[in-house]
Write a structure and sequence with these properties.
Elements (H helix, E strand, L loop, with lengths): L1 H23 L1 H21 L5 H29 L1 H8 L2 H6 L4 H31 L8 H28 L4 H14 L15 H6 L1 H13 L9 H32 L7
Helix pairs in contact: 1-6, 2-3, 2-6, 3-6, 3-7, 3-8, 3-10, 6-7, 7-8, 7-10, 7-11, 10-11
Length: 269
């Protein structure tokens, strides 16, 4: 019990450290929130070219895609760029030498990422709804955010897989993570239905957790469906997360051992 309490305290410590870093660079956080909000509004305006209910539905479809992708990409980046950030801050060796398990360290990173991304998404959602005067009275917002929280596990696992790249290549690793993120965006239903993709890409898109998430969110926010209606998609997200998180952790630990053995951990370019 004492060991468990110590690990939980350490997990909170990593969350608090990341929050303090966010406050230190709060100007940058404001910049990125403004940028993401403007991007969502721009995408929403693409669907605002027709009048009536059809136009509103198109706007909401695109906005949900933009909002959800903003959430998932921020969460993904927090995990995938954790090594690059630690190296830039000059704390990577001290962090990895701390008397806590790697699971605790990554759990703290993930918990902060989920909390930060949820708050950020809620702010942008409120602004975009007011901007386009969308009627969300029938939307199941609680159910949608619950789906979003569950989906976070899958993207934490993918983020761990991507986080190994900065360990293997200090020079190009952080940039390479954006390739994975771009492929996830392409093979999903962020801005278009999966059916418009080439035939060979559609099976890949249907395995993408972003597709499950977006379909479920649109059912709850656009259709007002209850949580039970999206349980099949939620089950897929849970199963995907249960597979990706352990695999991501194993790959990250293997990459860490390689970086320590080859002297790449401290290198900065």
């Amino acid at each position: 019990m004492t060991s468990f309490r110590r690990e939980m305290t350490a997990t909170y410590g990593f969350v608090e450290r990341n929050w303090n870093l966010t406050k230190r660079y709060i100007a940058w956080e404001v910049v990125w929130i403004v940028y993401s909000t403007v991007s969502a509004l721009t995408i929403g305006l693409i669907g605002a070219d027709s009048q009536g209910i059809g136009g509103k539905e198109r706007v909401l479809y695109l906005l949900i895609g933009a909002l959800l992708w903003s959430y998932l990409s921020v969460l993904f980046q927090i995990m995938s760029e954790t090594v690059a950030w630690e190296r830039w801050e000059g704390t990577i060796e001290y962090t990895f030498m701390a008397p806590v398990s790697r699971v605790t360290y990554l759990a703290g990173q993930g918990l902060f990422g989920i909390t930060y991304s949820l708050i950020r998404t809620a702010i942008i959602l409120g602004i975009t709804v007011l901007w386009f005067d969308l009627d969300m009275s029938q939307a199941n917002l609680v159910g949608g955010f619950a789906v979003l929280f569950i989906a976070s596990l899958s993207f934490l696992g993918l983020g761990l897989l991507a986080a190994v790249l900065p360990l293997l290549s200090p020079e190009r690793g952080p940039q390479a993570t954006h390739i994975i993120q771009g492929l996830l965006l392409l093979c999903s239903s962020v801005y278009y239905p999966v059916t418009v993709l080439p035939g060979w890409m559609q099976p890949i898109a249907r395995l993408n957790p972003a597709t499950f998430t977006l379909d479920a969110i649109r059912m709850t926010w656009m259709g007002g469906e209850g949580f039970l209606a999206v349980l099949p998609m939620v089950a897929k997200l849970i199963a995907t997360g249960a597979v990706l998180v352990p695999i991501g952790l194993l790959v990250f630990q293997a990459g860490e051992r390689y970086a320590l053995r080859t002297g790449k951990l401290k290198r900065n370019g």
